[in-house]
Structure formats: C-alpha cells, structure tokens
Specification:
This protein has two helices and 16 strands. By secondary structure, it is mainly β. The longest helix has 4 residues, at 41-44. The strands form three sheets. Strands 1, 2, 3, 7, 12, 13, 14 and 16 form an eight-stranded antiparallel beta sheet that branches. The protein is 3% helix and 38% strand. The chain has one domain (12-264): Jelly Rolls (Sandwich). It is globular.
C-alpha cells in the first residue's frame, strides 16, 4: 500500500507526547546524555533550557567535545530514549560509528521508549549556522548488534539552510544490519527552516514515508523490524577543541516545540501504552 501524500494519523493512537511545558525534562521519556558509554555521563550531558513550552538544546562557547578520544572536536547536546552498552573495555554498545570504539564508562541498560513501527513527529526550528546540524533520528536498541540500523527522520545542516529553501536529510543507514541497504537523501524543500516546521516519518513493516509540514516528500521501500529508540540533538563541527564561531554567536540553540510518537492500533507494532498516566 502506498503511503498517503498528506500525513494521515488514521490507524494510530498517541503513545507519547512532549510539549516541553513542564519545569524540567521528562526523565521517564528522555535520557539527558549522548551515547555516554563511549565517553562519560559528565562529558555527554545535554545543555538545554525549558522556556514557555519550548526546549532549547544549546551548544555553548565553553562546551567541551563530547568524546575527543573517538569523535574529535565534535560538540553535541542530545536527548535519547534508550541506552544499551556492555561493560567497560567491551566493544558492545549502541551506534558504533567507528569500528575501534570501546566502552569507557559503564551504563545501566534502559528502554524508556523503544517502539517498533509507528508515526513520529517533531515541530522545531533549524539553525542557519554552517558549523551546526540538528536532527531527529532513531537507532536500534542494539541488544543484538545486527539490530543497529538508523532511521533519519530529519537532518538539517546549517550550510543547507537558505531564506526560502533547505535541504532536509531523510532515509535509512544500515550500520550493522545486514538486511538494510543504505538509502539516504537530502531533499530540497521550499521552507525557511529557521521558522517552526513539522517533520514526520511513518514507519511500517514495508516502508518508511517522510513528511515535511504534513506533505509527503520521500518514500523508502524498506524498514528495520525491531525496537528502536529516539535521538534528538544539535551538533557543532569544528577543526579544534575551541569555539567554532565568534563568541558573540553563542549559544547556538536548537528550538524544539513538540515531539509525538504514535503507535499502530492493529497489526505489527500494536502495543500497550508506554505511559498510562503522563501526570
């Protein structure tokens, strides 16, 4: 069945929603670190503010690289909804972005929100700075190393943001999944990405459909078939450990207004609510 050309939530019911209108981040949903097994909790902690119903993930001028050993001067503020890693010194852990990674700090295994199939939505504003990138993506929980593919719902490099158009990255990467072939593309969309826009992906057993402002922009005819977790972040790329931009341009801020996850009501992926009472 072909996906609808306009986003249709029929056949799904809301499973999680965060409008970021609480005094603190919901730690029943979010882990406030970025892949801490390859670094440490201290070095990978997100920098952020909550203000009148928006989340502002920040890169600050004094922020150190999250993992200089493995990822050089890259700086990141990130949230994720699961965490799985082996003991210190092992090579077991999520999102092995290079083959020589070794766990540097032990982490508890946590699966706060790890759906299999569904509809996922983000309302956010990108950053037009060429050294920054913002993204919403999903990775396999990876308790089995073959369950390691990535679904990129939206990835926006500042260098690709113009006043009336932007290139939005979307698609899948296999990493260690032998059943997934790489199928990723940056699609030109006529929007001002620094203003609020809606980004979404419909994940079914047969395909992935990607939407911007409720409009279908890309379909990938394959999909992972195992639980995945959500990753929401802002990156800053640099040639060295210091600030990549003049100091007056900090903080770099990824403004997020809403995240929603919908579960299928029938068929593969139908499941009980993640939270019976959001409180």
């Amino acid at each position: 069945m072909s996906p609808p050309t306009t986003l249709d939530r029929a056949g799904h019911e809301l499973e999680v929603e965060d409008a970021f209108d609480r005094p603190s981040l919901d730690e029943r949903l979010w882990i406030l670190h970025y892949l801490p097994q390859w670094s440490s909790r201290a070095a990978s902690a997100a920098r952020y503010d909550l203000d009148q119903g928006v989340l502002r993930l920040r890169i600050d001028a004094d922020q150190p690289p999250w993992s200089p050993e493995w990822n050089g001067p890259l700086r990141v503020s990130s949230l994720q909804t699961g965490l799985f890693a082996g003991p210190v010194g092992s090579t077991t852990g999520q999102h092995r972005f290079r083959p020589d990674l070794v766990v540097r700090e032990a982490q508890p295994s946590v699966a706060l929100y790890t759906p299999r199939y569904g509809l996922f939505e983000l309302r956010a504003r990108a950053i037009a700075d060429p050294v920054n990138m913002v993204a919403l993506w999903m990775i396999g929980y990876e308790d089995d190393p073959r369950r390691s593919a990535e679904i990129c719902i939206c990835e926006v490099f500042g260098r690709d943001v113009g006043p009336t158009s932007a290139r939005i990255g979307m698609g899948v990467h296999p990493f260690g999944d032998p059943l997934i072939r790489d199928d990723f593309k940056a699609v030109a969309v006529e929007i001002d990405a620094t203003a609020p826009h809606d980004y979404a992906a419909l994940w079914t057993p047969d395909h992935l459909a990607f939407y911007v402002d409720q409009r279908l922009v890309r379909v990938v005819g394959q999909s992972p078939s195992y639980p995945m977790q959500v990753m929401l972040n802002v990156y800053e790329f640099a040639d060295g450990p210091g600030p990549a931009s003049p100091l007056e341009r900090y903080p770099k801020t990824f403004v997020v207004e809403r995240f929603r996850g919908w579960r299928p009501t029938t068929g593969p992926g139908a499941r009980p609510p993640a939270f019976d009472d959001r409180g």
